[in-house]
């Protein structure tokens, strides 16, 4: 059969019979990732968020002030609220109970303009029906009209009709479900993840009590969140490890042309900005119109006050936006009747009418607050004016370091061994600890697409430094030039010279510290490199195990234990609590007096523990850590920006007390301390 004949036959075979129509909740089970992101840990917890969102919507509508979440011992989750209860009467369009419609129909609910909700986070109306589709079992209970109504489902299919099963006092809804093991790769709910999410929702919905019960273990636990201060309490929580510049937290809440605007802020003695925006309690990670309105009003209001009070003279430059955001911790939350989000992920708010609403509400309230709190205002302006001076110094330093020629590749760092590939998509940069490892990497690499930048010693801790001081550090300066993206307000991810940035450090304490310093630099000044998936951490082997002509590179202690069993290395008894590397060291000394040899019944096994990259020759480094076919790398990702921000604050900030507490709290969780 010729190619032409084959194509003709294929065209004829593709008919209406090949078109599949998925009914009801079938699309959800067929493509769950389209609705909950994935079927791993994040997607599993997303089911809980969808059910809780319904209760939060009732709270925002003013009908609910108590929500209870229970993790049950059989892998089930129960969410109960004291809202109005999902309607159970017959829906005219479908001739079935409204409860069944909500649980079985996509894009069905009280959030599409029929007066059920004034504002809602569940705009797309697929929440609880998606949970039903992806649940092995779900039971809905509704307390309305003095009766308890119930209905059960199996994988989205109702087992019976909605019916009254008893009497009930008050109103509300309980959804109990068990995630389907056929769908999810994990069924284990993480209590810390749930705490973090619920804490945030409690801050954003002031006056609502949310309780989390964990009944999975013998030691049952319960934790309750309640914040009368709302997002003002949220700001205090974010700043709890920092020295604040002023004691009073600014807070305002007001409705403007049908849009509820809520803003809280406080300045701290730091260089970074911490700003979270929300629309209908949904975290808008990419900001949007509410963020634009807030930033414009903040800069304008502070400039007006500073000029009026004589802090700025006519000949002086106005404060720039970056000056007013240095050390700022702020929360901006809006409630909109018909929010327009960009995509199902709801990462960015697009409503144009929100920008002037936030601008008007915030600027009026903030101007009055500055007049009423002169000491706080003075502290704020002092911080902003100092930031302006630093900005000018940083710009001078950046202009000196990052000349146009440098970014065009004419003045790249001398220590950079660049690759020959010109397309960034085909290139990767290894940031290597030390000149010794850098030399091995340069010799072992594939010059066509792998560039090597060795760093000497530990770079500056950028958590405690401004850009001008950063660019005075030769190691940081070399890295910034090599990346090609510029830094600060001139940063442009499109100019990144390499598709993959790979941190490669020694497997010891110093190497871990250098890696942490580099991660701090990227997280604070190059976050887009992380969020767009360009940053990786190389995984060099910990051991080289040789028996005869067979050579194995081992990347973990667990893997070494397996190899020990394979080679029947059993001539010694490990001591309890003794690091595995030390056990082999001791056994080797006992057997032969040789630091790297363990003797066993059938021959000799040579075990080498790599403490540094420089201990490997170029060929070994290529085979184990740099060869794209065989290497192992970890991609750096940020699942929770607020949590990541807090950890960097604690570990790399100036305050000692929170760092000491963090170390004491997590000391027992540390593994491989000798690595």
UniProtKB/TrEMBL annotation:
Q: Which domain of life is it from?
A: Bacteria
Q: How is the cofactor bound?
A: Binds two Mg(2+) per subunit. The magnesium ions form salt bridges with both the protein and the DNA. Can also accept other divalent metal cations, such as Mn(2+) or Ca(2+).
Catalytic activity entry: ATP-dependent breakage, passage and rejoining of double-stranded DNA
Q: Where in the cell is it found?
A: Cytoplasm
Translocase as a keyword? no
Alphabetically, the GO molecular function entries are: ATP binding; DNA binding; DNA topoisomerase type II (double strand cut, ATP-hydrolyzing) activity; metal ion binding
Under the cellular component aspect of Gene Ontology, which terms does the record hold?
A: chromosome; cytoplasm
List the InterPro entries hit by this protein, alphabetically: DNA_gyrase_B_C, GyrB, HATPase_C_sf, HATPase_dom, Ribosomal_Su5_D2-typ_SF, Ribsml_uS5_D2-typ_fold_subgr, Topo_IIA, Topo_IIA-like_dom_sf
Q: Which Gene3D superfamilies match?
A: 3.30.230.10, 3.40.50.670, Histidine kinase-like ATPase, C-terminal domain (3.30.565.10)
Task: Tell me which residues are marked as the site Interaction with DNA.
Answer: 458, 461
List cofactor names only. Mg(2+); Mn(2+); Ca(2+)
| Residue span, Toprim domain | 427-541
What keywords would UniProt list here?
ATP-binding, Cytoplasm, DNA-binding, Isomerase, Magnesium, Metal-binding, Nucleotide-binding, Topoisomerase
EC annotation?
Answer: 5.6.2.2
Name the Pfam families for this protein: DNA_gyraseB (PF00204), DNA_gyraseB_C (PF00986), HATPase_c (PF02518), Toprim (PF01751)
Give GO BP annotations, semicolon-separated.
DNA topological change; DNA-templated DNA replication
Instruction: Give residues annotated as binding Mg(2+) 2.
Output: 506, 508
The positions annotated for binding Mg(2+) 1 are: 433, 506
PROSITE patterns cross-referenced by the UniProt entry: TOPOISOMERASE_II (PS00177), TOPRIM (PS50880)
- What does the similarity note say? Belongs to the type II topoisomerase GyrB family.
Q: What does this protein do?
A: A type II topoisomerase that negatively supercoils closed circular double-stranded (ds) DNA in an ATP-dependent manner to modulate DNA topology and maintain chromosomes in an underwound state. Negative supercoiling favors strand separation, and DNA replication, transcription, recombination and repair, all of which involve strand separation. Also able to catalyze the interconversion of other topological isomers of dsDNA rings, including catenanes and knotted rings. Type II topoisomerases break and join 2 DNA strands simultaneously in an ATP-dependent manner.
Oligomeric state and interaction partners are given as:
Heterotetramer, composed of two GyrA and two GyrB chains. In the heterotetramer, GyrA contains the active site tyrosine that forms a transient covalent intermediate with DNA, while GyrB binds cofactors and catalyzes ATP hydrolysis.
Q: What else is known?
A: Few gyrases are as efficient as E.coli at forming negative supercoils. Not all organisms have 2 type II topoisomerases; in organisms with a single type II topoisomerase this enzyme also has to decatenate newly replicated chromosomes.
- Per its record, how is this protein called by name? DNA gyrase subunit B
């Amino acid at each position: 059969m010729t190619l032409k004949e084959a194509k003709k036959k294929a065209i004829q075979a593709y008919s209406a019979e090949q078109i599949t129509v998925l009914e009801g909740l079938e699309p959800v089970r067929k493509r769950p990732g389209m609705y909950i992101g994935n079927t791993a840990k994040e997607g599993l917890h997303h089911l809980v968020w969808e059910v809780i969102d319904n209760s939060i919507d009732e709270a925002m509508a003013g009908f609910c002030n108590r929500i209870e979440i229970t993790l049950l011992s059989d892998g089930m989750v129960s969410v109960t609220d004291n809202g109005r209860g999902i309607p159970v009467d017959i829906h005219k369009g479908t001739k079935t109970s409204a409860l069944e419609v909500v649980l079985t129909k996509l894009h069905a609910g009280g959030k599409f303009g029929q007066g059920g909700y004034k504002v809602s986070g569940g705009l797309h109306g697929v929440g609880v029906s998606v949970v039903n589709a992806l649940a092995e079992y779900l039971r809905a209970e509704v307390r309305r009209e003095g009766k308890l109504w119930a209905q059960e489902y199996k994988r989205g299919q109702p087992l019976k009709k909605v019916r009254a099963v008893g009497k009930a006092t008050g109103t509300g809804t309980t959804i109990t479900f068990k995630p389907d093991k056929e769908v999810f790769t994990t069924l284990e709910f993480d209590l810390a993840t749930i705490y973090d999410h619920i804490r945030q929702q409690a801050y954003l919905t002031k006056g609502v009590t949310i309780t989390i019960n964990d009944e999975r273990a013998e030691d049952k636990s319960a934790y309750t969140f309640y914040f009368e201060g709302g997002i003002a309490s949220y700001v205090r929580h974010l700043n709890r490890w920092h020295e604040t510049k002023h004691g009073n937290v600014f807070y305002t809440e007001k409705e403007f042309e049908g849009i509820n605007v809520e803003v809280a802020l406080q300045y701290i003695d730091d260089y970074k900005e911490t700003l979270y925006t929300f629309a209908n309690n949904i975290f808008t990670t990419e900001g949007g119109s509410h963020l634009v309105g807030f930033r414009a009003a903040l800069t304008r209001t502070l400039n007006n006050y500073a000029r009026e009070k004589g802090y700025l003279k006519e000949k002086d430059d106005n404060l720039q936006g970056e000056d007013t955001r240095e050390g700022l911790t702020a929360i901006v939350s809006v409630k909109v009747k018909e929010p327009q989000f960009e995509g199902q992920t709801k990462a960015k708010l697009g409503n144009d009418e929100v920008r002037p609403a936030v601008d008007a509400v915030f600027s009026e309230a903030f101007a009055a607050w500055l007049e009423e709190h002169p000491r706080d205002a003075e502290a704020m302006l002092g911080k902003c004016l100092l930031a302006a001076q630093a900005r000018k110094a940083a710009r001078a330093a950046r202009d000196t370091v990052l000349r146009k020629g440098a970014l065009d590749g004419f003045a790249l760092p001398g220590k950079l061994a660049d690759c020959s590939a010109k397309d960034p998509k085909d290139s990767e940069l290894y940031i290597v600890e030390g000149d010794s490892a850098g030399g091995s990497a340069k010799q072992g690499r594939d010059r066509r697409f792998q560039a090597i930048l060795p760093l000497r010693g530990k770079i500056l801790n950028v958590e405690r430094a401004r850009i001008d001081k950063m660019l005075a550090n030769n190691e940081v300066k070399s890295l910034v030039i090599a990346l090609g993206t510029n830094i600060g307000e001139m940063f442009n991810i499109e100019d990144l010279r390499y598709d993959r940035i790979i941190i490669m450090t020694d497997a010891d304490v110093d190497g871990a510290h250098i890696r942490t310093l580099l991660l701090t630099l990227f997280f604070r000044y190059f976050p887009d490199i992380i969020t767009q998936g360009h940053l990786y951490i190389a995984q060099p082997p910990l051991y080289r195990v040789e028996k005869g002509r067979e050579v194995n590179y081992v990347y973990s202690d667990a893997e070494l234990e397996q190899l020990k069993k394979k080679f029947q290395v059993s001539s010694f008894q490990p001591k309890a609590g003794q690091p595995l590397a030390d056990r082999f060291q001791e056994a080797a000394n006992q057997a032969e007096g040789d630091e790297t040899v363990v003797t066993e019944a059938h021959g000799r096994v040579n075990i080498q523990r790599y403490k540094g990259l420089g201990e490997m020759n170029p060929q070994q480094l290529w085979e184990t850590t740099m060869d794209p076919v065989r290497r192992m790398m970890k991609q750096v990702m940020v699942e929770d920006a607020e949590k990541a921000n807090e950890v960097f604050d604690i570990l790399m900030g100036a305050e000692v007390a929170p760092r000491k507490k963090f170390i004491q709290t997590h000391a027992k969780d540390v593994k491989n301390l000798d690595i």
